[in-house]
Amino acid sequence: MDNRVYWIWLQNAFGAGSPKPVQLVRRIGSAEKLYQGGTRLWSSFSFVSDKELAALNAYGAEQAAAALEYYLKLGQKVITPDDEDYPVLLKEIYNPPAVLYVQGDLSILSDAVSISIVGTRKASQNGLNAAREIAYGLALKNAVLSAAARSALIPRHTRVH
Question: Where are the alpha helices (DSSP H) in the chain?
Answer without folding.
Answer: 3-14, 20-28, 31-42, 50-58, 61-73, 88-91, 108-111, 125-140
